[in-house]
Amino acid sequence: MNNSFTSALLSLGVLLAVSIGCSQGQESGTANVTGNTTTASTAPATGVLEGSYDISGVNENGAGAYKGTLIVTPRGDVYQFSWDTAGRKYDGVGVRTDTSVAAAFASGDNGEGCGVVLYKIGADGTLDGKAGYWGNNSSETEVAKRTAGTDLEGDYEISGNNTAGQNYTGKLSVKKAGAGYTFSWNAGSQFEGFGIKQDDTVAVGIGGSKCGFVSYEIAADGTLNGKWGGYGSRSVGTETAKKK
C-alpha cells in the first residue's frame, strides 16, 4: 500500500449503490469514522483485533516492498483501519468473522465511499456475509445461496439485512477475473465489487475508483496475514501486520 498502489487504485471501476452516512475523519492514525475520538487498545491478547501494528508488505506484481504502521480501532459493529507507510496514509473500514478480517480503504485520512463484504463459504457453496461501509458504525448481513455454477463462480439468490435494519432480496453473479472474482449484485439497484478468496472466505471490496481492499487471516499470536488489491487486479499484494 505505498506509492505504486495509488495508480492501481485508479483502475477500480466499481459502482456503489448503497446509502452511506459519511463523516470527515480526524488526524492521521486516529481518523474517526463517527467523529468521536477514542484510543485504540494495544493489548497483545490473542484474538483481540484492535491495537497498533508494525506492517511489512510487497506491492502487486512484486513491485517493491514497503513498511509502516497500522492502527485498528473498534467502531460499533465495525473497525476503523488507519495505515501509515512512509508518510503515505490510508484509512478504511473493516469487518471480522472468526479469524478472518476484510477491510476497504482509500488514500488519505478517511475512506469515504468505500465498503467491504466478508463472506464465509459453506460446504454447499452458500455465502454467509458481513459488510461494513465507511462512515457507518453498523454492519450489514447477507446470505447468498447458489442456484447455478461451481466453486465460487455462479449465480446466487440473496437475502439480507442492511445497516438501517431493513430486509432486502435480490440476485448475485460471481465470475472469475484476474487474481480474483467480479461480484455483480442486483437488489433493486445494480452495483459491482471485486473479491479475493482465501481458503473458505472471500473479501469483496466495493466503492469508487479510489477504493482498495485487503483480506487478513488472524494467526494464533495475533499477527494479521493479508492479501490486497483493487478492482480487476491481475496479481495481489501481500501484507503482514504484527501487533506492537
Structural overview:
The chain is mostly beta strands. 3% of the residues lie in helices and 53% in strands. It has one helix at 3-9, and strands spanning 51-58, 65-75, 78-85, 88-97, 100-107, 115-121, 127-133, 140-148, 154-161, 167-177, 180-186, 190-198, 201-206, 212-218, 224-229, 237-243. The radius of gyration is 16 Å and the shape is globular. The model is unreliable at 2-46 (pLDDT under 50).
As an assembly, this protein is: single chain
The beta-strand count equals: 16
Contiguous runs where pLDDT drops below 50 for at least 5 residues: 2-46
Overall outline: globular
- In helices, the fraction of residues equals under 10%
- Rg, rounded, reads 16 Å
Output the strand order for the largest sheet.
1-2-3-4-5-14-15-16
User: What's the pLDDT, averaged over the residues?
Assistant: 82
Q: Please summarize the sheet with the most strands.
A: 8 strands, antiparallel, barrel
Q: Helix/strand-derived class? A: mainly beta
Distance between the termini: 20 Å
Number of helices: 1
Give the strand content: over 45%
Helices and strands, with pairings:
Layout: H1 3-9, E1 51-58, E2 65-75, E3 78-85, E4 88-97, E5 100-107, E6 115-121, E7 127-133, E8 140-148, E9 154-161, E10 167-177, E11 180-186, E12 190-198, E13 201-206, E14 212-218, E15 224-229, E16 237-243
Antiparallel strand pairs: 1-2, 1-16, 2-3, 3-4, 4-5, 5-14, 6-7, 6-13, 7-8, 8-9, 9-10, 10-11, 11-12, 12-13, 14-15, 15-16
Quick description:
This protein is mostly beta strands. It is 3% helix and 53% strand. The strands form two sheets. Strands 1-2-3-4-5-14-15-16 form an eight-stranded antiparallel barrel. Strands 6-7-8-9-10-11-12-13 form an eight-stranded antiparallel β-barrel.
